[in-house]
Write a structure and sequence with these properties.
Glu/Leu/Phe/Val/Trp_DH, Aminoacid_DH-like_N_sf, globular, 408 residues, alpha/beta, oxidoreductase
């Protein structure tokens, strides 16, 4: 696996598009790792200090994710080095999408990512640049549908991603109107835990869980884990955190979900970050869902959790470990060797899978069908791993080997 990984990491990307804004200091890159299957896909992120290497590593990550979620295309990513809080952001995005629109018409599909909103920014701004939908390039390059078929499938994709969830089983509040895009990634993180216990033995019910991050992904993962009967004993967020060693009730987790503002945990009894960051890792817990930023978790934190009975990690964040390596650094390898570690490209593939699902010919548009499809994809990926390696450890190494053999 290590040889395969090295070969994959060192492979030069097929296309690197570099852009410098004419009106601000913003600089952007599209990195297309490969045009496997005639197209490539990956979202657009914006943050101050972003560089081309970050975009490249994310493009390679997307390509691995597509081996699980489909479609069978190459990985890509867009990144803009600019402060997303700057009032000039909209203008930057308009000029950026104007510059990359030929790629988006031909063979590249994008979406929202860190600090760039799919529904309020990507879709309307790409439309202004003459792109029918941010995934149009994937339709044209990979699926090559007739014009009529393309119109139907783009309509299906557009409607599906922003579909308001009506089934109360999948939403913390039917009156507050949450969309598929709001909930599906966190659902996948929780579902990966459930499917893991189904395949490897055991039951999620009654297991204690710690969730890191309480944005869209972390809050949804906590909601679904709690709904499955897991006991959330700790939540850590940038603003602080909460601990309840008996586990929060499902009603309490739902209230916390509804109370959050944006991506921030809100609670009267919030423990300051410095304090919770010292204490949360030693809590008795079997499940850990890292759903905050990438490259945060240290080896010391992991070892504390392992000593406290940790069984499984389901990654909501891409590369959650504080390793320098693109994929499989020493902290991740150490963790994979000690506990069941479900890699991000399986556990957080929900959104990529939703795109793939709606790009297919006419599909069912019900909440049940959409969520069940993501659940099935995650189950199938874990079954493939289990067929190759029955052990509860080195799950990530096995999953990478399966993916890389498809790509190299």
């Amino acid at each position: 696996m290590k040889e395969l990984l090295k070969k994959y990491e060192n492979k030069t990307p097929e296309i690197v598009f570099n852009w410098k804004d004419s009106e601000t200091e913003a600089e952007g890159w599209v990195v297309i790792n490969s045009l496997r299957g005639g197209a490539a896909g990956g979202g657009t992120r914006m943050r101050k200090g972003l560089d081309m290497n970050e975009v490249l590593s994310l493009a390679k990550t997307m390509e691995i994710k597509f081996t699980v979620s489909g479609p069978a295309i190459g990985g890509a990513k867009s990144g803009i080095n600019f402060d997303p809080k700057d009032p000039r952001k909209k203008g930057v995005l308009e000029r950026w999408y104007g510059a990359v629109s030929p790629l988006l018409k031909s063979y590249y599909g994008t979406g929202g990512d860190l600090n760039v909103d799919e529904i309020h920014e990507v879709i309307p701004i790409t439309e202004e640049s003459g792109v029918w939908h941010p995934q149009e390039g994937v339709f044209n390059g990979h699926f090559k549908p007739t014009e009529a078929d393309k119109i139907n499938r783009i309509g299906q994709l557009r409607q599906g991603v922003i579909k308001v969830i009506e089934n109360p089983d999948f939403s913390p509040s039917v009156s507050k109107k949450y969309t598929i895009a709001d909930m599906i990634t966190g659902f996948g993180v929780a579902e990966a835990v459930k499917q893991y216990y189904n395949i490897y033995g055991g039951d999620v019910k009654g297991k204690r869980a710690v969730v890191q991050g309480f944005g869209n992904v972390g809050a949804a993962a906590a909601f679904y884990l709690s709904q499955m009967g897991a006991k959330i004993v700790g939540i850590i967020d940038i603003a602080g955190g909460l601990i309840n060693e008996d586990g929060f009730t499902f009603e309490e987790i739902t209230e916390l979900f509804l109370a959050k503002t944006g991506n921030t945990l809100i609670a009267d009894n919030l423990i300051p970050f410095e304090e919770i960051n010292k204490n949360i890792w030693a809590l008795k817990t079997e499940i850990f869902a890292p759903c905050a930023a990438s490259r945060l978790i240290t080896i010391h934190q992991i070892d504390e959790m392992i000593d406290s009975g940790l069984e499984i990690i389901s990654c909501g964040a891409n590369v959650p470990f504080a390793d320098k390596e693109i994929f499989f650094g020493p902290i991740m390898e150490h963790t994979d060797y000690k506990v069941s570690l479900i890699p991000d490209f399986i556990s957080n593939c929900g959104m990529a899978r939703v795109f793939a699902y709606f790009m297919e010919r006419k599909v069912q548009m019900t909440d049940e069908a959409i969520f069940k499809d993501t659940s099935n994809i995650i189950r199938q990926a874990l079954e493939k791993v289990h067929n190759k390696n029955k052990s509860k450890t080195e799950i990530s190494a096995t999953a990478f080997e399966i993916a890389l053999n498809q790509l190299l």
